[in-house]
Each structure stands twice: as structure tokens, then as C-alpha cells.
Specification:
Blueprint (H helix, E strand, L loop, with lengths): L12 E3 L15 E3 L25 E2 L2 H5 L3 E6 L7 E6 L5 E12 L7 E11 L5 E14 L7 H4 E12 L3 E6 L6 E6 L12 E5 L2 E4 L3 E3 L2 E2 L7 E5 L6 E4 L8 E7 L12 H4 L7 E4 L7 E2 L3 E5 L5 E9 L6 E9 L5 E7 L12 E6 L5 E2 L4 E3 L3 E2 L4 E2 L4 E5 L2 H8 L5 E2 L10 E5 L5 E6 L22 E3 L12 E3 L3 E6 L2 E4 L19 E5 L2 E3 L4 E6 L7 E6 L5 E6 L3 E4 L5 E9 L9 E8 L2 E5 L2 E2 L4 E4 L2 E4 L4 E6 L9 E6 L1 E2 L7 E4 L2 E4 L5 E6 L5 E2 L7 E3 L4 E9 L2 E4 L3 E3 L12 E4 L6 E6 L3 E6 L5 E7 L2 E6 L6 E9 L2 E9 L1
Parallel strand pairs: 1-14, 30-31, 39-45, 46-51, 47-52
Antiparallel strand pairs: 2-4, 3-16, 4-11, 5-10, 5-12, 6-9, 6-11, 6-16, 7-8, 7-10, 12-13, 14-15, 17-18, 18-21, 19-20, 19-22, 22-23, 24-25, 24-34, 25-30, 26-29, 27-28, 27-32, 32-33, 34-35, 36-37, 38-40, 40-43, 41-42, 41-44, 44-45, 48-49, 50-51, 53-54, 54-57, 55-56, 55-58, 58-59, 58-60, 61-62, ...
């Protein structure tokens, strides 16, 4: 460590012994406690490495104790001396600090028999002083127990709540920030146990001073406080050999260590502390020669054969040891196999996704340093290929990544030939480890269609790594999807993983397809019969339009019912599924006869109906569809649609007044009927009204357009002159010349109608004789209607 330079303005600080010395400031003066400190039962390390190996665990760095020839103590407080001491440690690699051990006691009972000491972890800054914020901190109680000054009594241990991993040098600080003195044990500055490493620091009133700027009684403070970190770390063994392969003997092989750097740090490894670091490295050359302790070494091999070389690393810690080992194979009998080749991917122009896959089929890892590949030109780096692992090299790293979604292990030069070539793997000694001459003709998988290796998207894969990979029939086109399509071809490849070859696929027969019947009426079904073996196919697939065209359905059965469309439908059938590549179809064509159709659109009267195919259609059921089975001209069903127009109903009600009946339907043609004579037509009676001259039952036949309907029969009673004597009303003379008498015994209503049913006279007559006149009306027959109470009587009267 570099010392701070003195100048004319800097005075060297002197650490006073007890009360003798100079004050650094008026607030703080460093003091020594003269009590004797002994190693006690925790003796200083004797520099002899004789511990047995244990499982790696946390170690306590007794480095400052190991440097000690004697022990002294410093009074630590914030009133008259330094308030804290620090101790520096290297970090040759990642070091995890869990806590620390130090040795201290309270000087006296002033202020009580205990005080709290603070322990903190910092990164080391300039000149090995603490820098930045504390990474970890804790407090521990220190009491007045002295125990004769034995370290075992004065030992204090603290664990940080959270261990801290550092990657650069660090310092542990122990402080007493009270006025009560605390004795802090150091190795001897009188004997210069610090060895001029100047690893300690002193905190005087908040200012850190390097130890070489402090004297103790005129002697430099060349010492270390006994602050011992609790640490853990990784220990990794690693070494290389040059050459790894040789084919002549004798050959001298050089071994170079690449193990964890902590092995060579004297603060952590006792072997390094005693300048015997080589004791931490033990080589077994695997040839029966004695083991050698050395960091880097060599060995002369007299035979050309495989050798297993082991480096065992032992870190002789201060309280626990750690060990690790690494093994290299010289002249490894490499069982490397070329297992997959993508020589012509479906790219346009320059191929960027070519690759070669190499598999370690041996039981041991193989160091590939300086192995070579020809075909795709490549020299392997210093990499160990584990047993059962794959190594993939490509012509273009970015093209490979974009296609397969991960990075290849290496990049070769000179692309692979689309017409076939030799690929050779050699070890550094030039021995051929594996070679393949692939080709694009049989018996090698070939072809440029989709799923084939010569531009159709598939790689070549070796189906069994234990078979001869120079026999083309041992290879197959890969069927594993890489989940990408290039130029319309799905890429089928499996770089870096085990190959999966499907067993030989037994394609289905091209089936014979028949139908029964072969001609059907439109809308009817026919049954396809499929004759042939599915073999490895899963189902028969049925198409229309073309083989592989519009899918109808699939079935594993030998029959299937279809409904063809006219004028004909051709069905194509082939086996598909599982390993099968769809091929040719069998087919059958079915003729479809057209359906016979018709319609009924009649207009009917409201009271009419028609019968179609046994179904009655009328005003209440005017429309429908009727199917005449086998009724068409071609023997197919005939379908008739009924849609009737129904005219409004004729009003066949009538109104009766006296001897006169009137039809309520207007604007029609009328014919009156004699119900008592079999509905015989009454000649000349075609008016809307009819006046009966004879008592009887009468109806009217009404015609509206082409519709005819008949009213119900009405009963009419006609009273003649011969019946007048029976009545309470007398009319005379009858016939008369237009003037006549009406005699009534009580009040009556009289109404007179002409032959047209028109009222010509109406009056109310009281009891007595009344003279009435029809002289203003033409001669003819009239009907006199007499209403008396609830009775109505009609009389026929003739005017001459």
C-alpha cells in the first residue's frame, strides 16, 4: 500500500503511551493500555498446514493473529483517544462478509461495567481507508471482564443481520463512541507485526488517519487491530492442457491453472501466507507418476493413449478448509456423431439457416479445443461438450437465430453444397472422429417438395445415433416444426435436441368408391361405399370439387351417406391422418334428377273450397305445400304450392217487413226461391225485395261476380179478404177504385206496400170507421199491414 507523503505542513502523529504523548486535538488523545495480552488457548497460527479437509463453510480470517509475535492494546474512546480502528482486507473475487471477531474489554467501571461497541463494514477507498456509507452495521456489548488478558476471554463475535457480498477490497471498523475507555487488542507495533503493510486506520475525532502517519512512543504504528472478518466464497477448480491430443510419444503436456484467484491470496489461504501456495494445487497426471504440488506444471507422457488428469485445489483456511477438483481427458476417445444437416433451406438467394449438429455419444465430456470441421469450415474453441449434449454450428448466426429462435454454438465458413458433400470432424491430432458424405439422391432422403430436404424446408436427421451415419437409409427428413414458414414452406428441423424419426409409414390404398343408388332425385340421399385399406391413415376424407378440394367430412367407416346436389356431384375419397402424406383419391359421380314442382293460385268464393292431395283449402286454410310422392314425370316427388285468393263473403241476411222480404246485400243479382217447392225459382222475382202473395217460406239466391250464396228461408203469412170476418179489422170494398173503408174496434197501425215493397201509405187508426184513398197511386195489387198489439196481419187489396 502506498504511504501518504509528509510535507512541511504535516506533522507525524504520535500515539501516546498512557498519559505520555502529544494531543492530536484538544478533544482526543490516543492512549495505550499497558496490560499484558496473551494468546492463551487461542495460540497464534504456527504456519504448519495440517488440517483435514472439511466441507466448505464460513471461515474466520485469523490473518492479523497469524502475523502477531506479541499482542498489545489501545484505548479507544471519543474523549482522549481514537474513537475507532479499521482493518483492510483484499477481495480477489466475490467475498460474502457475514460478521467479524475482535478482542476488547472495558478499561474500568467508570460509567458502568459495560459499553456498546459498533462494528461496521465499508468498501476500502484511497489508501485503504473506509469510504462511502456503511454496507453493514451492528453493536455488541463489551464489559470489564479481562481474564488475565487471554484472547479466549476477550473475544467478541458479531453477525450482521444481512450478509454483504463485495467485489472489491473492504474494511471492518470497530468503534467506541463514548467517553468510557475500551481496550482494543492489536498485534505488536513494538515488534512491527504489521509487516509494513499499513492495513490499519485510526479515526481521530471523525478523521481517518493511515497507521504509518501515527507513532506510538516514537515507534511507527506498524500493527493491525485484531479484527477478523467472517467470510464465505466460491472455490472453483479449473485448468487447461496443451496439447489435449497427441499421436506421438513422448509428448510433454503443459498444465495451466485457471482456478479461483482466492487460492493465491495470503489473507485467505494459509499456504499462500507461508509462501507455499503450490501446496494448494495437487496434480494427478493419470499415468501412475507421483502427484505434483504446483500452480502450473508439465508432464512427459511416454505412450499415446487416453489419460485422465485431475487437479485438486485445497484452500487452507484459517479455521476451515475448502476443496474442489477438476478433471481433463487427454487423448479422449471422442464419440462425436454428426446427427443433423440442414444443407438446402427453403430460402431464396443466399442460405442463412444452414447448420450442422454434432452429438457427444460418449460417456464422458469432450473438450473440443482445436477440433476441426470440414465441409462447413470451423475450428472449435475451448469448450467442454458434456456426454449426451449437442453442439450446433451455422453459416450465419443471425439467420440461424431468426429461424430457430436461439443462438448457435459457432459459425462456419463456406456454405454447404446443395448437391451433397463430405463433412469431417477431426481432433487436434488430426484423427478423424466422424465423417458423413450426404447426398440429395436415393437412398438419402431427397426431393424439393414441401417436407423434403433439398429446398422443401426439412433437414436431414440421423434416426439412431448408434447406426452408421454414412448410410443414407439411416437418415430421414425431419418432421419436427421449427414454427416458421419460409417462401411458403414450413421449416422442419430440430437443432440442439434429440431427433425424432417416425417409423416407416404404410400409406392407404387408393379406394374404390361406389354409390347406391347412382341416380337420385334432388334432395334425396345415397350411400357411398369405400373399398380399400386405411393402413396407417386415421380416416377416409371425403371431398367435392376435386381431390383435396372442399371437405365434406371424414369417417373411419366403409360407408357414408351423402346428399348430392344437381345436376350431378362427384365425391373424391382418400385416406389421411397420422404419418400419411395425402395422395390420390378414388371417386364416384352421382346423377341428380330435378324435382317436379307446381302451384295452385285459384281465386275462390268465401264459401267455396278446393281439395289438393286430400287436404281441404278454403277461407280458413288458404295456403300450404303438398308433396306427391313419385308423382313427377321423372318418377321423383312433385311438390305443389297452394296460395288461394278468397273473395269477401256475401251477406245472406234478409229483413222482413209484412209480406215483403229484403236482401241486405246490395249491388248484387237476386233470384227469389220457393222453399216449400224445393227452392224452386219464382219466375220474375229478381229484385232485392220480394213480396209474398201466398203464405209460405221463401229465400233469395244472391250472386256477386262469380260467387253465389243463398239466404235462410223466411216464413211469410198472407191474409185474404175472406179472412176479414175473423179479424178485428174490416177493409171494404175490395177490390175498389182507390177509395176504401177500414173499420177497427181498437187502435191499430196501418202500413200499405206496393208490389215493389215500397211503402205508399202509413197511419195510426183509432177505433171506428176510416175512409182511405190510394187515388194518387197506380192501380194494382197492394198489401195492407195491420199491427195490433203484438200481432201483425197482412191483407191483399186490389185497386182497379
Amino acid at each position: 500500500m502506498q504511504k501518504l507523503k509528509n510535507d512541511n505542513t504535516m506533522k507525524k502523529l504520535i500515539l501516546s503511551l498512557f498519559c505520555v504523548g502529544m494531543f492530536i486535538s484538544t478533544q482526543a488523545q490516543l492512549q495505550q493500555d499497558n496490560r499484558t495480552i496473551s494468546f492463551g488457548t487461542i495460540s497464534k497460527q504456527n504456519n504448519v498446514i495440517n488440517k483435514g479437509l472439511t466441507t466448505c463453510s464460513n471461515d474466520t480470517l485469523d490473518y492479523t493473529i497469524a502475523k502477531a509475535t506479541g499482542l498489545q492494546s489501545i484505548s479507544i474512546n471519543n474523549a482522549t483517544s481514537a474513537q475507532a480502528l479499521s482493518q483492510y482486507y483484499n477481495a480477489p473475487q466475490a467475498i460474502t462478509v457475514h460478521g467479524a471477531t475482535f478482542y476488547a474489554y472495558k478499561l474500568d467501571a467508570n460509567g458502568g461495567t459495560t459499553l456498546n461497541a459498533t462494528v461496521q463494514l465499508y468498501l476500502a477507498g484511497t489508501d485503504s481507508m473506509p469510504t462511502g456509507m456503511a454496507l453493514a452495521s451492528g453493536t455488541i456489548t463489551v464489559d470489564t471482564t479481562f481474564g488475565g488478558g487471554a484472547l479466549s476471554v476477550l473475544e467478541k463475535n458479531i453477525s450482521f443481520s444481512t450478509p454483504v457480498t463485495v467485489n472489491q477490497p473492504y474494511v471492518i471498523v470497530v468503534g467506541n463512541y463514548s467517553a468510557n475507555g475500551m481496550g482494543m487488542v492489536c498485534n505488536s507495533w513494538t515488534a512491527a507485526d504489521g509487516g509494513q503493510e499499513w492495513l490499519a486506520g485510526v479515526d481521530l475525532a471523525g478523521t481517518w488517519i493511515r497507521s504509518y502517519n501515527i507513532n506510538v512512543g516514537g515507534v511507527p504504528f506498524d500493527a493491525d487491530p485484531l479484527i477478523l472478518p467472517h467470510v464465505s466464497y466460491d472455490l472453483t477448480s479449473d485448468f487447461s492442457a496443451t496439447p489435449l491430443y497427441f499421436n506421438t510419444a513422448p509428448t510433454n503436456v503443459t498444465f495451466t491453472d485457471n482456478s479461483s484467484p482466492i487460492l493465491q491470496d495470503r489473507m485467505y489461504n494459509q499456504a499462500a501466507f507461508i509462501a507455499s501456495t503450490q501446496l494448494s494445487y495437487t496434480y494427478d497426471f493419470g499415468d501412475g507418476s507421483p502427484e505434483v504440488n504446483a500452480i502450473n506444471t508439465n508432464n512427459n507422457y511416454t505412450l499415446v493413449q487416453p489419460y485422465t488428469v485431475t487437479l485438486k485445489d485445497t484452500l487452507f483456511g484459517w479455521r476451515v478448509n475448502c476443496s474442489s477438483s477438476d478433471t481433463l481427458m487427454l487423448n479422449t476417445p471422442a464419440d462425436l456423431v454428426i446427427t443433423e444437416i440442414m444443407y438446402n433451406p427453403p430460402e431464396s438467394g443466399t442460405d442463412t439457416s444452414e447448420f450442422i449438429e454434432i452429438y457427444n455419444n460418449g460417456a464422458n465430456a469432450v473438450n473440443l479445443l482445436n477440433f476441426t470441421c470440414t465441409g462447413g469450415i470451423y475450428t472449435f474453441p475451448n469448450v467442454s461438450l458434456a456426454a449426451g449434449a449437442y453442439y450446433v454450428i451455422t453459416v450465419d448466426s443471425s439467420g440461424f437465430y431468426n429461424t430457430y429462435g436461439f443462438s448457435a454454438d459457432g459459425v462456419f465458413t463456406s456454405g454447404l453444397s446443395n448437391g451433397g458433400e463430405s463433412i469431417v470432424i477431426k481432433n487436434p491430432a488430426g484423427t478423424v472422429i466422424d465423417s458423413v458424405f450426404y447426398d440429395d439422391v436415393a437412398p438419402w432422403p431427397s426431393g424439393f417438395a414441401a417436407g423434403q430436404p433439398d429446398g422443401g424446408g426439412a433437414s436431414l436427421i440421423l434416426c439412431d445415433v448408434n447406426t452408421d451415419n454414412n448410410i443414407g437409409s439411416n437418415w430421414s427428413a425431419c418432421t419436427t416444426s421449427a414454427n416458421i414458414t419460409i417462401n411458403g414452406f414450413p421449416v422442419l428441423a430440430s437443432p440442439g435436441v434429440a431427433n425424432v424419426c417416425a417409423p416407416p409409414c404404410n400409406n392407404p390404398d387408393v379406394p374404390t368408391v361406389t354409390s347406391s343408388p347412382t341416380t337420385v332425385c334432388d334432395g334425396l340421399t345415397t350411400t357411398l361405399t369405400i373399398t380399400g385399406n386405411l393402413n396407417d391413415a386415421s380416416k377416409w376424407y371425403i371431398y367435392t370439387g376435386s381431390c383435396g378440394g372442399t371437405i365434406v367430412d371424414s369417417t373411419a367407416n366403409s360407408t357414408y351417406v351423402v346428399t348430392p346436389a344437381g345436376p350431378n356431384t362427384t365425391y373424391y375419397v382418400r385416406g389421411e391422418g397420422n404419418c400419411v402424406v395425402p395422395g390420390s383419391c378414388g371417386n364416384v359421380t352421382i346423377n341428380v334428377l330435378p324435382a317436379s314442382t307446381g302451384s295452385v293460385t285459384n281465386t275462390i268464393c268465401n264459401n267455396d273450397s278446393i281439395v289438393v292431395n286430400g287436404t281441404v283449402y278454403n277461407a280458413n286454410n288458404p295456403s300450404g305445400t303438398e308433396v306427391f310422392v313419385n308423382g313427377g314425370a321423372n318418377g321423383c316427388d312433385s311438390t305443389v304450392t297452394i296460395n288461394l285468393t278468397v273473395l269477401p263473403a256475401i251477406d245472406i241476411t234478409t229483413t222482413v217487413s209484412g209480406n215483403t222480404i229484403t236482401a241486405n246485400e246490395t249491388g248484387a243479382t237476386y233470384q227469389w226461391l220457393d222453399c216449400d217447392n224445393g227452392n224452386a225459382v219464382i219466375n220474375g222475382e229478381t229484385s232485392q225485395s220480394f213480396t209474398a202473395t201466398v203464405t209460405g217460406n221463401y229465400a233469395v239466391e244472391i250472386t256477386v261476380g262469380n260467387c253465389v250464396d243463398t239466404s235462410a228461408c223466411e216464413n211469410i203469412t198472407v191474409v185474404g179478404i175472406d179472412e176479414l170476418s175473423k179479424a178485428s179489422v174490416t177493409i171494404y170494398p175490395n177490390p175498389n177504385d182507390g177509395v176504401f173503408n177500414v173499420v177497427t174496434s181498437e187502435q191499430v197501425n196501418i202500413t200499405i206496400y206496393n208490389m215493389l215493397g215500397e211503402i205508399v201509405l202509413t197511419n195510426v187508426l183509432n177505433g171506428g170507421t176510416h175512409v182511405l184513398s190510394l187515388n194518387s197511386h197506380p192501380k194494382g195489387v197492394y198489401f195492407v199491414n195491420i199491427q195490433q198489439n203484438e200481432s201483425v196481419t197482412t191483407y191483399k187489396m186490389i185497386v182497379k
